[in-house]
Amino acid sequence: MVFSMITILIIPFIIGVGLYLKAAPLFENQSLLKLIFSSSWAPSTGEFGFWPFITGSLYVTLLSFLFTAPVCLFAAIYLTQFSSPGLIRVMHPVIDVLAGLPSVIYGVWGILVIVPFVSDYAAPFFGTTSSGYSVLSGGIVLAVMCIPYTLNMLIEVFNTVPNGLKEASLSLGATMWESVKHVVIRGNYPGIISAYGLGIAKAFGETIAVMMVVGNMVKTSGNPFEAAYPLPALIANNYGEMLSIPMYDAALMFAAFLLFIIILMINLFFRYLIHKTKRQ
Amino acid sequence: MELTETKTNNKVPASKHIVSEASSILRVKDLNVFAGAHHILKNVELEIPRNKITVLIGPSGCGKTTLLKCINKLTDLYKELKVSGSIFIDKDDILNTDTNIPALRQKMGLLSQRPYPLPVSIYKNVAYGLKLKGVRDKKLIDFSVEKHLREVGLWEEVKNRLNSPATRLSIGQQQRLCLARGLAVKPSIILADEPTSSLDPISSKIIENLFKDLTKHYTIILVTHVLRQAIRLADHVIFMNDGEIIEQGSPEILFKSPETEQLRAYLVDGN
Amino acid sequence: MRRVKIIEEKFFIWLSAFMTYSLIAVLAFIILVIFIKGFGALNWDMVLKTPRGGYYYGGEGGVLNAIIGSLYIAVGATLIAIIIGVPAALYLNVQLIRYRRTQNTIRYFLDALWGIPSIVYGAFGFSLMIFFGMNASLLAGIITVALLIVPIMVRTFDEVLSTIPKGLHEASLALGSTRTETAFKVLFKQGFPGFITAVLLSFGRGIGDAASVLFTAGYTDNIPVNLDEPAATLPLAIFFQLGSPIPEVRDRAFASAIILTGIILTISIGARILSKRYSKTNLT
Question: Is the minimum CB–CB distance between A236 and chain B shorter than 8 Å?
Answer without folding.
Answer: no
